[in-house]
Structure formats: structure tokens, C-alpha cells
Amino acid sequence: NQLLDSMLISSSPITNEENMRNFTDQEFQICTQTADKSLQGKSGHNVNVYLNLYDKNNKQLGDSIRLENSKNHKIPFQKHHTDKFNILLSNITIFEIDRIDLYHDGQNDGWFCDFVELKNLQTNQTKCFSVHQWLDKISDNMHFSMTNYQMISCDDKRYNGNISNYYYYTVRIKTNQTNLLPNGSVHISLKLFGKFHQTEQIQLDQTIDNQQAFHRNNSIDTFEIRTSTKLNSIEKIEFYYEFQINYGKLSLEWIEITNLTNGIISCFPINRILTQLNNNKQIQQILTLTEFNNKSCSD
């Protein structure tokens, strides 16, 4: 799973001479924020963190970027640290960047990344990708891909009181079989219950990689959700579904929810086929799930 060095762009220090080689080169600063879990590697092995950039057509912009030589920390990706990396990108503007892939090759522990910020140092144009994601080792295929961003500094977003009071979760749903075609859809939402509180009904309307959810057999769709309700634990889920086509059918295996504040996983087995009620579309149905464990559903 190691990437060839010849295919990588290194975030090494940039000299004025290098910056003059090509007028299409733009100097960017990439910032990462580590939450309460440092990234660790095997004994004697440095962990490599990679970033890929994509445009709106899902075309990769340039080569994979290895984030190394943090400008402000000798050892990057440590607890509560923001690391800054400078890099030259050729023929790429910040407006072209629509999606990022973030991953690493650490083997001992996961890494909780809070955000990734990209800034053009010539124009100060900025994009903030709010990751809020637990990234496990690369062999588990935990590449995090996301399209949600804002054209502001991540620090500005962090200290905006209207945003920082949310609690974030990732939701993964395993689809075994589906009869939904590209022009058909199903509206899915859920409500999370703790011991004493419950969230609002939260719509699952966009996967983190902008794929059309529940349209592929034997697939896993991943969503990021947020709520202003704090739950110390998840004890129950109410799963709402409403088919928008006649004779809709969906076979689901499990739902996995990860609390991005503490990394706690809740796996709720489903193992059932969801169908329309009396073959009438646009009737909302509810599935209540109370049995769960705290291991990854895909283990």
C-alpha cells in the first residue's frame, strides 16, 4: 500500500529559486488539526500521511501529497497540535479543489483529524474541510473522502459559536441488495437515543464522497451527521425510510455509528429487507433498533 516516491509531491520547504521556475506554480499552506489522539507508527517507523485533491468531475489534481516537514512541530500529528505544511502546486487553483482524500500508513493506532485547511499563500484564498474523523490504519481501507467545505479559515469556523456547539458522528450503512435505479430514491433519516436524551430526526441526504446512496449491491455508504444534542452514549436508533418509487426494496445488513468526539463505535445489526407498505410510495416507515455492540460492524 506504500505509494512510490516518484508519484508523490513532498511538502518540503520552498525556496525563492524553486518558486521562480514556473509561473504557474502556486504556493499553498496545508494545515491539519489533530484532536485528542496522536498518530503513532510502528517502533522505528515514521508514519506517512497523504492527501489527494480532486475537482468536481472527480479527476485527481496533481499527484498524491505526502505531508511532511511540519513548519511548527518537530513531530507532526500530535495531540491538540495544528501542523502547517508548505507545498508548490502546478496549474491548480483553490477553486478547482472540490474533494480531498486523507489517509495514512500508521499501524498501531488510529488518528483523529479535526480539520484540513488549504490556503493559497499568494491570494490568501482558503478552503476548510471539517474532517472530524477517526482514521484507522491504511490496510483497513480507511481513506477519508469528503466534499463538504467552506471558503473560510478553519479557525474562523471553529470559534463561530453557531458551529462549534455541534456534536459530530459518522454513519455507515451496509446495503446487501437494492432494486433502486439511478432515477429512483429512498429518503432515509434517523434519530439517536441516549439514556436521557434524544436527537432530532436527521436526514441522510449526502454521502461524504458524493455518491448516490443505497444504489449499489454489497456496498457501504458513509455519511457525516451533526446534532446540537449531547448524548453520552447511544442506546437506541429509530431508522426512518420512505421509498420514492413503486415496489421499492432495500436489503440492509447493519448500521454503524461512530461518535467523533470520543471514537466510540456502536454497531446495530439489521439483517432484513425493507419494502414499501402496500406498494404505495411516499409512506414513511420506522424501524427501531435496540441491539448493538461496540465493535466495528465490518470486523
Automatic annotation (TrEMBL):
PROSITE patterns attached to this UniProt entry: PLAT
Stored InterPro entries: Inner_ear_hair_cell_LOXHD, PLAT/LH2_dom, PLAT/LH2_dom_sf
Domain annotation PLAT: ranges: 26-149, 167-288
Domain of life: Eukaryota
Pfam families, sorted: PLAT
Matching PANTHER family: PLAT DOMAIN-CONTAINING PROTEIN, PROTEIN CBG12474
Protein name per UniProt: PLAT domain-containing protein
